[in-house]
Amino acid sequence: MGIGTPNGTANRQRRTDELAAVSMTASQLAQAVGRFDGDKAAMVRAAVRTAERAFSELDACDNVIDEASETGRKIADRLAELLAAETAADIPVQLDALEATSARVRDTDATRTLLNHLLGRQEEVAQRPQAVLHLSSADLPGLPSAYTDETGFEDLMAVAARGEELAPRLRDAHAERLDKVADHLVRVVREAAAVGFAERGFAIESVHEARQAYELWLQCLAERRRDLG
């Protein structure tokens, strides 16, 4: 869920124009520098002012990333609390905040790309974080059931008795499944926050995986209620 600002459209247009300028050829750049008419001192002063402005803009982008990282850690902590308390209804609010935090960083993408290109820092910032880990129901511990027991039963009473016998294991299995999904969800958010949501693909995938993990956690919660009441 993105966050709009009154100047958002204008800023995006400005950044688009700036990115287009990156394609300037060496010949075109030489022509532009030539406007100084041989005044090397003026050219150097202009270059210094440009570099200062570029670093200032990068500092502002870095501040956004740092703030997003801190916000992401707080969201992860809050999610851990809500999952432990099984306060399911409050979790989507945190996931929306996570997506908004990621979107704020994405709004700096064009500026960071341009400035890092101009400052020759592309290789320094190009490394992608480790891949986002995914979790599905197939990765969770199985649930014991008298109906799938290898031991044959002659009547329903025997099946019911076996169910009572398996009840402690079933409770433990449900708890383990819920804990595994909750830990995964929180870990995904923490890992995205650790890099400040600065890598676009990794951040988007992380937010998506967090939402998927929440849906899986709800599924596990429903299965436990079905089996244990």
Q: Which features characterize this protein?
A:
229 residues, elongated, mainly alpha, 8 helices
Descriptive notes:
With 229 residues, this protein is mainly α. It is 72% helix and 0% strand. It is built from 8 helices and no strands. Helix 1 packs parallel to helix 5 (109-118), helix 3 packs antiparallel against helix 5 and helix 3 (40-85) runs antiparallel to helix 7. The longest helix has 46 residues, at 40-85. The radius of gyration is 27 Å and the shape is elongated. The model is unreliable at 1-12 and 14-30 (pLDDT under 50).
Query: Helices and strands, in N-to-C order?
Result: HHHHHHHH
Morphology: elongated
Quaternary structure of the protein: single chain
Q: Would you identify the regions where 5 or more consecutive residues have pLDDT less than 50? A: 1-12, 14-30
Given the helix and strand composition, which structural class is it?
A: mainly alpha
On the 0-100 scale, what is the average pLDDT?
Answer: 76
Helix content: over 70%
Distance between the termini: 35 Å
Please provide the count of β strands: 0
Rg from C-alpha positions? 27 Å
Strand content: under 5%
- If helices are DSSP runs of H or I spanning 4 or more residues, what is the number of helices? 8
The biggest beta sheet reads: none
